Structures are given as C-alpha cells and as structure tokens.
Amino acid sequence: MFKTLKDCHNTEDFRKLAKARLPAPIFHYIDGAADDEVTLKRNTEAYENCDLVPNVLAGVEDIDTSVEVMGKKISLPLFFSPTALQRLFHHDGELAVGKVAQKFNTFFGVSSLGTYSLKEISENVKTPKIFQFYFHKDRGLNDSMIEQCKEASFDAIALTVDTITGGNRERDLRTGFTSPPKLTLSSLFSFAFHPMWAINYFTHKKFELSQLKDYIKEGSNLAISVGDYFSSMLDQNMNWKDAEKLRSKWGGQFCLKGIMSVDDAKKAVDIGATAIMVSNHGGRQLDGSRAPFDQLAEIVDAVGDKIDVICDGGIRRGTHVLKALSVGAKACSGGRFYLYALAAAGQPGVEKAINNMRNEIERDMKLMGCKKVSDLSKNNIKFR
Hints:
- The protein is an alpha/beta fold.
- It has 15 helices and 12 strands.
- The protein has helices at residues 11-21, 24-31, 38-45, 93-104, 118-124, 139-151, 170-175, 188-192, 195-203, 226-233, 240-250, 262-270, 292-303, 318-327, 336-368; strands spanning 50-52, 67-69, 72-74, 78-80, 108-111, 129-133, 156-160, 253-259, 275-278, 308-312, 331-334, 381-383.
- The longest helix has 33 residues, at 336-368.
C-alpha cells in the first residue's frame, strides 16, 4: 500500500492513500457512484476505445499548453471541476484547491455546497473561478447566490442541470454518509480508527455549507444525505426558461453543466449559454447513461463552433485530455483526480496531482508532435 505523498505518481496512487486516511463513509462518498456504478467505470474506459496517432519531426522543445475557455486564457487544458463538501476531505478544503489552481493558472470550480464563503475564496484565490449553481426551490436563495458571485467577482456560473433528483448512491446508504457526518453503528469503528481525521475535523473551523447556511439548515446544522438534499431542496420543475432567466440575471459567462445530448447542446446555444460541460455528474446520477467522451464528438460537430465544449469526467491521464482535445473539446475538467489528492495530503497533494497531469500533458504533446493545443485534431485520433 502507498503510504506517503512521494509514492503517488497517478490518480490510483492518490486514491489508495485517500482510502487509508479517510473514514469509510467519507472515502466512499468521493469514490462511489449510482446503482451498479456502470457509468462510473465507463467514464474512464471510454478513452480506451480509441488510439492517438502521433506525428514526428515537429520541433517540440518548446510547447504551449494554454487554452482560452469561458473568456479566460488558462495555462492548462484541464481545470478543477466544482465539487461539494471539500472540508470533509481535508480541513483546508476549497482554499487548498484554489491556491493550487492559482499557482497553475487554471479555472477553479466552487460548488453551491461549498464549505468556504465565496467572499473568503475571492480574497484568498486569484485565478479564474466558476461557481456551480444548484437551482433551489427557494428563489431568495437563488438570487442571493447570484449576488454573492457578483460581489466576489466570479468569472462564470455553471448551472448544474443533471440533479433534478438525487441519484441512488448505494455506498452512501450502506455507510450512512451525511453532511455533516453523524455516527452510526456501521460507521463508528471507521471514524474511531481514523483519529487524525476526527481531530482535524473538530479542531478547525466549524463545518458549514457557507453559501446556504442563512437559508437552509440541512447540510450545515442538520444532517442529510446529498441524494436527499437534491431530491428535497432543488427545484424539480426547473426548465429551459428558468435557465435563460438565470443567464440573464447573471449577465456574464454562463455554462450548463450536465449536457449529454445534441438536442440539449443546441438548446444551450439558443438560450445564450457561452459554454457547456458534457458531463454525467461523475456517474453519480443516472447509471447506465453514456460517458461524456462517448458523446463528445457528435456534440462538438453540432455546436463546437458556437459554444465552448468542455469534457468533464473520467479523466485519469494526460492522454485522456489529449484525446478529448483531439475530438474538439476546448478544455477538460474533473473532480476525483484532485479530491483523492486533497484527502491524501491537503494542498501539497493537490499540487502534486495537477503537476503530475501537467507533466503528462506536456510529455504526451511532445510525443504527439504538437507544439500547441490547436495542433491537435481529429486526424490525431482513430476509433477502433
């Protein structure tokens, strides 16, 4: 078993270290997905159904990995997808991830279910930032989150559209995972055998869902599962008119996260969205759905010249990023690859995880004969 940060050379290494350091309910919340977790597995396996075709003698000593997405130039074609509850995984949570995003000049995603306020994040993190917007039944809360984003000078909002109800996350049901955590007979021993996690949790800033706490007790002061939160607090009647109104109220770069069909991608263009994240929520919602990479080509062909298309999910290697870029994605994003690292070692872990990915992307671009991201095209990829 890998026991130290220096032994972590890839996502699976970080996963093993995170599993050793976290109580079981917390680890399985990160690691798990819906139903039989078929889609979770497929999200990564999809990248193995095609091969890269390199070119040579291209003079690749100096390469440029930067891309422009959602109105910002970032230094890597990979960014930190927004994820919830980060201070459950490490007491520094979003601030640790955000500082690494700043160092590597890439987008930093922050969830509505984040554990630091947008104001505090904005004061401490100077890098392009995108807020993941969950559309609640409480319209006052929705308006409050828009205003918080404006006051904190966020660069984009991503309306999450694939959480109309909570997915059937059976690992969470078995472990009794809730936010905030509560002890059950099944989880007691796991928490007891991870005393450092408990010490850090109880001796640092009180856990809360900072954007929601003034409106909703659930998740901060009242324990609830994420699935139940989605099912009870989010507006199941959300529709395209609601999305368009939200875009208008925000007035800036506007992304829809969770687009999986060509028809919906076209509708995103019609309502004035500037980006879409092709995503199935990491396989945590509808098991048996297609993988983002499986859908990417037809979505890019349909709307890639009208809107920024981001491939979100399943990323474990630099070659996965290059394959998505070759198909036509403007950039890629992911969650688990950095959450495992955050849980394993805090900010140094996240820094090593993204540095590993940067090194892979740079090395693989050179091996592909590509000096810049725009050199990648469908000519560089063959499906089996």
